[in-house]
Structure formats: C-alpha cells, structure tokens
Amino acid sequence: MKNNSPLVSVCVIAYNHEKYLEETIIGIVNQKTTFDFELQIHDDASTDSTPEIIRKYEKLYPEIIKPTIQTENQLSQGIKPLTRFIYPKLKSKYVAFCEGDDYWNDMNKLQKQVDFMEAHPDYSLCAHDTNFIFEEGVKVKEQFYIKPAEGDFTFTFMDELKNHFIPTPSVLTRLQLILEMPTNFKSIVSGDIQLALYLLSRGKGYYFADKMSTKRRNRGGITFNKAYMSKAFEGAYELLFYISQFAPPESRLYIRRKMAEYERAFIKKRMKIRRFGFPMLIFRAIINNPSWFIYGWHNKPANGN
Predict the structure, then answer these.
(1) Are residues 113 and 182 in the same domain?
(2) What is the DSSP string of 227-252?
(3) 31/96 Cα distance (integer angstroms)
(4) d(Cα 75, Cα 119) in Å, to the nearest integer?
(5) How many domains does the chain have?
(6) What is the pLDDT along the chain (305 residues), one digit of tens a residue?
(7) Alpha helices per DSSP H over 18-156
(8) CA gap 30, 22 in Å, rounded
(9) 66 and 166: one domain?
(10) Alpha helices, DSSP H only, in the chain?
(11) Domain contains 294
C-alpha cells in the first residue's frame, strides 16, 4: 500500500470455505487499479482449513489482506461480523463485498465501479450482472434475478423493493452511507436486501450489464439452512418495519400493503410472531389495506416468495 487509507475496502465473510476461498482471494488481489485497496476478511471460527488459507495469502499480500480470525463463532451468538468487527476498522471511501464462496472474474471490476462513483456523486451504489454456478444438489434456475431493465441502467429504491435483483458480490458503495445505517433491528434475516434498500433510500443505483463476478449456489449456503428458512418469512416482515424508517415517501403505500399481505398470511397460517399477537395482526391488516377487506377478501395472501 502507498498510504494508510486505501480508497476501497473489500469485505469478505468466510466460514468453512476451504473449497472456494483461494479463488475468492485471487479474484480480489488481482484487481488492476490506479488506487490502493485492501481486503478485510473475517473468518467466523471455521472448522476446516479456511483460517490457514487466509494466513497463507496474508503472508503473500501483507499490504492488502487484513484478516480477523475468530476462535469462537460470532454469528451463532447473534453478532453480525461486518457491523461489529469490520466496519469499525475501515478508513476507505468505498466498500465492496464478496462472499467467501463467490469470486470476481473481471480484473477491471473495481476500477470501473470506482470511476463511475467518482463521476456521479449523486449515486449511492453501483452493481453489475453476475454469472451463476449451480452445484450438485441445487436446482438450476435459468433466470435467478429478475432485473427491472436490460443493458446498463439506473435503478431506484422501488426497483429493489419490488424485486431483489442486486448480487451481493457486485455491490460497491460509499463507506459513509454504511456507517449511517440504522442498527436498531436485530431479527432481519436478509442483510444484503436490508443494505441495498437503505443505500437506495440515500441515492440512485447504477447497474452494469457486464458479468464481473460469479456467484455460487451450493447446499452450504445460508439460504439452504433450515434455521434460516424457518425465519425467512417473519424476517421479510421485519424488513418492512426496518425500511419504513427511511423509505422514500412514494414507496410508503406499497410498503403498507405488503405488510398487510404478510399480516393476513400470519393470520391464515395461525403463525405466532414476536412482534404482534393475533388481535393486533387483524387490526393492522385492516388498517394497512382496508380496501382488501372490501374488494379482495377472496384473494390469496402472500406466500413469502
């Protein structure tokens, strides 16, 4: 590094990723840039050789790789590694992300994204298309993300709210925005959607059609975890509460109606949730979308997908 403050910090969360992590690290350290960047990598007490792989590459790239290696798993204790351990360390202007089982396949990715953000201060993030690898035991989806447009395009809070389409390993944003995020909600399951929506409440997003990263879908991923799946439906409802703190005015009616869909689903399924009991759910479902009870009572409630 030429100075103590790299322009970009790349954040990687790793856990039992020995099969993939070398490719992840190589795709980052091989980036061709006119600026300094660092790799902040957090290992959450892996039980395989992930820590050894990190230490190996730290010796090879000591000016780039900055590891945090835990001896006790933090996520299982409800601690979010990025928020607790990584973000407080950062002194860069921009932050990029890559999961420990994904990788970047374009050596010009960071340069292209930083050039755009430097030229467009009114944008809060930029992202790009990604390749997918569906490993054994995972159903192949021909179209994993449904984008609101084709080619290169500008997108908004409502685009992401209606349909999550931003691949995590494609995101580059401004550190200052991340540090200003509300942290008063603990039960949100999907941190990547949470982050994207907050950032888009602060500015526009830009999407490059170039496939500059590769995302793996494997049975070890969090979305295949039974505990995650059992919490996902209620977590999606909690996400709506979270974003209602900062959502743009034009999105608030849509958010209320989505809340009503979940509330009707909780009632129909007789689901017990932490936030409300059945009487309050019925009241909220009516208040949040009274027209449904007049005209749409025969429609099916949300299924959580």
Answers:
(1) yes
(2) HHHHHHHHHHHHHHHHHTTT--GGGH
(3) 12
(4) 37
(5) 2
(6) 445 689 999 999 999 999 999 999 999 999 999 999 999 999 999 999 999 999 999 999 999 999 999 999 998 888 889 999 999 999 999 999 999 999 999 999 999 999 999 999 999 999 999 999 888 767 766 667 899 999 999 999 999 999 999 999 999 999 999 999 987 766 566 788 999 999 999 999 999 999 999 999 866 544 444 455 557 889 899 999 999 999 999 999 999 999 999 999 999 888 888 889 999 999 999 999 988 766 555 554 444 43
(7) 21-29, 50-60, 81, 109-119
(8) 12
(9) yes
(10) 21-29, 50-60, 81, 109-119, 157-162, 175-179, 191-200, 226-243, 252-269, 278-288, 290-295
(11) yes
Domain that holds residue 209: 8-224
Tell me if 237 is assigned to some domain. Answer: no
Residue 224 DSSP one-character state: G
Residue 244 domain flag:
no
Return the structure tokens found at 236: 């999606």
Burial 74-95 (b: 16+ CB within 10 A, else e): beeeeebbbeebbbeebebbbb
Angle between helices 21-29 and 50-60 (to 10 degrees): 20
The number of residues making up the chain comes to 305
CB 263 within 8 A of CB 302: no
Q: Which two tokens stand for residue 93?
A: 């202007």
DSSP 138: S
Q: Are 219 and 305 contained in the same domain? A: no
Angle at which helices 278-288 and 252-269 pack, to 10 degrees? 140
In terms of domains, do 259 and 168 share one? no
Domain check: are 169 and 131 in the same one? yes
Tokens of 45: 């007490």
Phi then psi dihedrals of residue 57, to 5 deg = -80, -25
